[in-house]
């Protein structure tokens, strides 16, 4: 050993000798031979070893006792009639067993704590938990969670959970219809709500909620999908190996075999094992070693998580086969190829509510390409996004893992709380693609009091190209996955024709029961509990250890050696994982990249042409867009003072390309005259005015004086004041400042003109009922100013048109 290293270890040993001697003499209850040993007083190495030996023995006893508690907890959890891990009181509102197409889902109302009452008229939130092998409750696992964030903000909150066993014969479509029924129930319970329910779907529940929203878009407010895979072929080369599993196993035939061996049910424990296989270092070593090393403080956290992780559930064979064939292998959701039994095409472009996608670069189960790939699958450019009037907001985290998206306290306090507090801002965003960014609030933050909590959320306009830079779609990779999908259908057909009848003839309920019981994950819980006579005595022994606990000092050299060995084991397992994943990727590319394999799968040529079916644009949609554009041309001069104010505000900030929660909260605090505008009405106005500015910016701004021609001076000045204050909520560029001054001048001239016409006593009101778009009389009134207003209108038009011509930016928000 080098002299420096030896001296360093000697110093650490000497520093720990005093505490070691005290520990060894006090720990006679655990090792009486240590106290009588005279060598301990003179040999620092022996003292450190004795201290470490006592601590290691005690930690081992406590670790064994925690694992015993884990086994007992597992048995108790299985015995519950409706097992879940919710940290909130809840009551069942609607059980899907009673629906015309029953399934094992239910709608529960979260009972708000007494210190956080529900606000009147607040938008309800519905949190839907994933059924991906585990039981329900992860969305409300702790106070700092999605449910906790909604309750803290005063929203009524509902939870969609499920039972471990599916109803015989239930399908994915049955679950979708149950979720639609749940939303209908929530809407009926909150007729006074400020908006439609906001729905949060985690992981598997995310894509299922999107399918439901495509089927029933009328039921949804903003949709937040967290860690939800939607585009299943997407991924970064060298980083996302899970997507190769289907191809390396030959497709979905193994899913059918597993369901047949389970007597018509698919055991969710296999899905959990797939998750665990992704990170062998965590599964085989890090998770348990972290408990062992911190057993004095980590026991309750570990047991709480293991209650969720060990609560395995089941899916029907039909459900699992549908998911694997159409999503994991077929990737048919984003190409609009899925059709319900009653003929409804599940096209995600039909969703009219804002879609918020929350994903993380540290997520190895749902990486950002799989969470955001649906954007590049469905849309080729921004014009297509706008033509479908769809709003998509994405937010990315730099490092957090898959489960951390739902259960991390830091995520709950930051991202989820910000999404909840700004749900109305998200709801009123015009069509387009945006990125939500959350920054720390400091003393220098302008109008920091208008942002709740310690963070400020801003929403910035992005493009399809920005998303494409994240997803990095690869045509050659798509060809390989397309070959997998075609060959999977062939293998599944062969299995069903040649093997399945024999398997089903041999399987019995008893054999399926023993197969479930002997699953490796279940065995790890079943073996070590009070049912095991060797485990039961550890309860008493652990209690004695806690009474005489003597933790090793942090500078003990043997503790340092233990940690070094642990690090080496973890790094070795990580090296094995990297080599394994690299081998999987190379094998997948070697097999399915062969031209003859792709030819057998029915693919022809290798000229780089896309094999993904673009959802396309139906003739009906083309006609709809044409009619909508024609209608918009007639709407340019329609509307009143409120529409004019929103149009002006959007115009001023067209260069900024950003919405900020401070602006929105300031808008809420401004006086409204005698008006009370619903969030739905406000959303409709903003989206319409933004569309008009995109389509015909010059004509839209030239029409503002005519829109103010029938408003009272007080209303005009009230709206102008709001435009000014909202514009100053964030710093303005020079061009924006100039545009604001021109717009305010237009409003002031209109107010003066109304006073000159003898209408100065009008009451301030910004909620004038808009004129019908189909009315020729209304159109004539809106476009023809009253006699005497020509000069004022001409001056205003010239000023605004000049601003329009000098602006080079085309973005609007």
UniProtKB/TrEMBL annotation:
Residue ranges of the region described as Disordered: 1-27, 754-813
PANTHER family xrefs: POLY(3-HYDROXYALKANOATE) POLYMERASE SUBUNIT PHAC
Protein name as catalogued: 3-hydroxyalkanoate synthetase
InterPro entries (alphabetical): AB_hydrolase_fold, DUF3141, PHA/PHB_synthase
Taxonomic source organism: Pandoraea sputorum
Domain of life: Bacteria
Low complexity: bias regions: 770-804
């Amino acid at each position: 050993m080098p002299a420096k290293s030896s001296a360093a270890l000697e110093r650490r040993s000497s520093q720990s000798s005093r505490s070691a001697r005290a520990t060894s003499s006090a720990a006679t209850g655990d090792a009486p031979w240590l106290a009588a040993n005279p060598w301990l007083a003179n040999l620092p190495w022996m003292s450190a070893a004795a201290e470490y030996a006592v601590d290691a023995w005690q930690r081992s006893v406590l670790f064994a006792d925690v694992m015993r508690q884990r086994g007992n907890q597992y048995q108790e959890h299985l015995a519950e009639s409706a097992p879940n891990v919710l940290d909130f009181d809840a009551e069942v509102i609607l059980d899907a067993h009673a629906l015309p197409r029953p399934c094992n889902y239910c709608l529960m109302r979260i009972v708000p704590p007494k210190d956080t009452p529900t606000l009147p008229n607040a938008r309800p939130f519905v949190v839907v938990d994933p059924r991906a092998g585990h039981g329900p409750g992860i969305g409300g696992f702790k106070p700092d969670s999605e449910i906790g964030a909604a309750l803290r903000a005063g929203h009524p909150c509902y939870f969609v959970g499920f039972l471990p066993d599916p109803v015989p014969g239930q399908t994915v479509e049955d679950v979708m219809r149950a979720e639609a029924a749940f939303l209908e129930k929530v809407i009926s319970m909150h007729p006074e709500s400020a908006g439609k329910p906001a729905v949060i779907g985690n992981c598997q529940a995310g894509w299922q909620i999107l399918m439901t929203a495509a089927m029933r878009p009328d039921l949804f407010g903003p949709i937040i999908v967290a860690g939800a895979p939607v585009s299943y072929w997407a991924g970064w080369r060298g980083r996302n190996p899970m997507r190769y599993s289907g191809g390396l196993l030959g497709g979905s035939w193994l899913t059918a075999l597993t369901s047949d061996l389970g007597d018509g049910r698919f055991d969710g424990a296999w899905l959990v094992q797939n998750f665990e296989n992704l990170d062998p270092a965590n599964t085989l070593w890090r998770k348990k070693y972290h408990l062992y090393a911190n057993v004095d403080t980590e026991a309750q956290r570990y047991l709480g998580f293991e209650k969720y992780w060990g609560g395995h559930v089941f899916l029907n064979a039909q459900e699992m086969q549908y998911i694997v064939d159409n999503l994991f292998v077929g990737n048919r959701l984003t190409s609009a190829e899925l059709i319900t039994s009653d003929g409804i095409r599940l096209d995600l472009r039909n969703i009219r509510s804002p879609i918020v996608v929350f994903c993380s670069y540290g997520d190895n189960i749902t990486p950002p390409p799989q969470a955001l790939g649906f954007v590049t699958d469905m849309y080729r450019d921004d014009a297509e996004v706008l033509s479908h009037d769809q709003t998509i907001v994405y937010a990315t985290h730099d490092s957090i893992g898959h489960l951390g998206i739902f259960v991390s306290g830091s995520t709950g306090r930051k991202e989820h709380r910000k999404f909840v507090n700004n749900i109305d801002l998200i709801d009123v965003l015009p069509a387009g693609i945006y990125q939500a960014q959350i920054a720390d609030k400091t003393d220098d933050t302008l109008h920091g009091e208008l942002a709740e909590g310690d963070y400020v959320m801003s929403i910035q306009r992005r493009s399809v190209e920005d998303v494409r830079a994240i997803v990095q779609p690869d045509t050659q990779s798509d060809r390989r996955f397309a070959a997998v999908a075609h060959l999977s259908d062939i293998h599944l057909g062969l299995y069903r024709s040649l093997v399945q009848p024999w398997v089903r003839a041999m399987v019995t309920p008893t054999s399926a029961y023993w197969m479930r019981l002997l699953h490796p994950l279940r065995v790890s819980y079943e073996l070590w509990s009070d049912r095991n006579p060797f485990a039961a005595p550890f309860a008493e022994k652990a209690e004695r250890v806690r009474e005489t606990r003597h933790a090793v000092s942090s500078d003990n050299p043997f503790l340092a050696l233990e940690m070094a060995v642990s690090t080496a084991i973890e790094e070795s397992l990580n090296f094995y994982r990297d080599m394994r994943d690299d081998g999987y990727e190379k094998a997948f590319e070697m097999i399915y990249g062969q031209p003859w394999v792709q030819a057998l799968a029915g693919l022809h040529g290798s000229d780089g042409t896309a094999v993904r079916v673009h959802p396309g644009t139906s003739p009906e949609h083309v006609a709809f867009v044409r009619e909508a554009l024609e209608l918009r041309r007639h709407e340019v001069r329609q509307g009143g003072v409120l529409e004019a104010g929103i149009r002006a505000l959007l115009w001023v900030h067209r260069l900024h390309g950003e919405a900020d929660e401070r602006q929105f909260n300031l808008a809420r605090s401004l006086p409204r005259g005698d008006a009370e505008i619903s969030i739905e009405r406000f959303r409709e106005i903003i989206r319409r005015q933004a569309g008009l500015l995109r389509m015909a910016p010059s004509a839209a701004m030239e029409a503002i004086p005519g829109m103010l021609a029938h408003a009272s001076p007080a209303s005009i000045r009230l709206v102008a004041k709001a435009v000014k204050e909202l514009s100053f909520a964030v710093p303005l560029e020079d061009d924006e400042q100039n545009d604001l001054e021109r717009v305010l001048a237009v409003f002031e001239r209109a107010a003066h003109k109304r006073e000159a016409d003898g209408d100065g006593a009008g009451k301030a009101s910004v909620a004038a009922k808009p004129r019908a778009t189909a009315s020729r009389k209304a159109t004539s009134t809106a476009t023809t100013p009253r006699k005497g207003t020509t000069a004022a209108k001409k001056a205003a038009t010239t000023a605004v048109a000049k601003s329009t011509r000098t602006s080079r930016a085309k973005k609007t928000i």
